[in-house]
User: Which sequence fits this backbone?
């Protein structure tokens, strides 16, 4: 094994580069090593020393003859080249800036500072945060009445504005659960499952997958104790969605199937799990299986919930329009971008105004479809609309899609619409980075 070489920081500009961000998102280490070589002057022999790899293995990765999948190797590369953990879908690395310092990942600038409670580190806020005069039943009713407004606020304004009150809710619920029992405990577990699941989604939208996973796990724990089958299935759907975002097809399908195994689900919750199944198959480049699952999900989303069926989960957003928009995105991966374009255009026209944050994501995906279809003008127009939304919402999902669009149209900057979009995107990207 080669002699270890102490790491040095990569140029901030490289870490903010759209091509580097996309290569890290896909864990394309051949591309990462090429970019590090060309833009940071770190040649293969030095990469080998810094990452505790052999020069021959680095050469195989660079040539595309070896794919890095082992998590220990991925972590060595992150630490050796000083690539922030979030870029590679890892936890924050020990050497990364502490809370209060400027983070390196551009989109993480929109994520509020938060660390999971840990008594050993003195951060045990959750067990001492609620005074002993708090009435649990009042708190449950208060949170339950306010959640619909928070859902709408996050859908329209983005996750950042919604996080502070939700974190306060979780803090209060966790504190009260320390001593609650009987029906009161069941009520806290039920509302806590909703709050924790929502927090998982908010952090996912902001690109913090580590914290998203923490809250999804907490939601699952509370839902299991409360025997809330619908919430357990919904959290499995959410975790499958997180796996899809990180291009982990097998995990996405496995979690989607686990969500469907829970009996007595509403048609829409089942539809959400089934369309995650479809997305996993699309990532596997299996169009027949993917389209069959989308068809199944479409039928389920068209059904109404059985009369008298009570559930804590609001899956009303899972409509035929929602399913078709997910299908449109998969058509890009399945090699038919124009079919994706037609479907996006049709379904975006019917998307309710409240889903502004999602509209930004879908417009960016429409732009990516246009770029894949070699229609850069139309792609840049859609991307510019998405850019206007993301400046308000700070959605990491939208920024990641726009980074892919910027890369796809980079060679067409002579097109006026492309030049305008690229200039605006780079300015916003740099603003987030600084």
Assistant:
């Amino acid at each position: 094994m080669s002699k270890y070489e102490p790491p040095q920081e990569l140029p901030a500009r490289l870490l903010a580069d759209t091509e580097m961000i996309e290569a890290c998102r896909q864990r394309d280490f051949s591309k990462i090593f090429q970019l590090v070589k060309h833009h940071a002057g770190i040649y293969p022999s030095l990469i080998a020393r810094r990452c505790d790899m052999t020069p021959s293995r680095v050469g195989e990765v660079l040539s595309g003859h070896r794919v890095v999948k082992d998590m220990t190797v991925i972590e060595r590369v992150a630490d050796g080249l000083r690539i922030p953990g979030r870029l590679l879908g890892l936890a924050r690395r020990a050497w990364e800036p502490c809370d209060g310092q400027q983070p390196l990942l551009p989109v993480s600038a929109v994520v509020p500072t938060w660390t999971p409670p840990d008594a050993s580190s003195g951060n045990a806020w959750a067990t001492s945060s609620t005074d002993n005069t708090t009435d649990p039943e009042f708190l449950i009713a208060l949170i339950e009445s306010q959640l619909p407004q928070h859902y709408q606020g996050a859908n329209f304004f983005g996750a950042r504005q919604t996080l502070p009150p939700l974190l306060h809710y979780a803090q209060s619920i966790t504190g009260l659960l320390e001593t609650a029992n009987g029906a009161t405990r069941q009520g806290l577990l039920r509302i806590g499952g909703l709050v924790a699941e929502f927090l998982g989604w908010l952090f996912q939208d902001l690109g913090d997958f580590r914290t998203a996973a923490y809250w999804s796990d907490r939601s699952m724990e509370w839902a299991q104790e409360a025997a809330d089958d619908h919430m357990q299935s919904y959290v499995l759907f959410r975790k499958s969605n997180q796996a899809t975002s990180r291009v982990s097809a097998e995990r996405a399908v496995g979690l989607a199937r686990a969500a469907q195994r829970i009996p007595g689900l509403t048609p829409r919750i089942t539809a959400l799990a089934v369309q995650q199944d479809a997305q996993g198959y699309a990532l596997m480049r299996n169009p027949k299986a993917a389209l069959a699952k989308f068809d199944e999900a479409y039928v389920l989303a068209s059904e109404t919930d059985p009369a008298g069926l009570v559930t804590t989960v609001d899956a009303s957003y899972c409509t035929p329009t929602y399913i078709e928009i997910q299908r449109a995105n998969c058509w890009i991966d399945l090699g038919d971008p124009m079919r994706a374009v037609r479907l996006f255009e049709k379904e975006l026209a019917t998307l309710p105004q409240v889903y502004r944050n999602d509209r930004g994501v879908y417009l960016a995906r429409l732009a990516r479809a246009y770029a894949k279809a070699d229609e850069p003008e139309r792609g840049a127009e859609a991307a510019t609309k998405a850019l206007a939304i993301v400046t308000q919402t700070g959605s990491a999902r939208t920024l990641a899609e726009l980074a892919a669009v910027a890369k796809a149209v980079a060679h067409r900057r002579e097109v006026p619409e492309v030049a305008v979009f690229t200039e605006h995107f780079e300015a916003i990207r740099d603003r987030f980075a600084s």
Q: What stands out?
A: Residues 99-129 have pLDDT under 50 and may be disordered. The first helix runs from residue 12 to 15. The chain is about 65% helix and 0% strand.
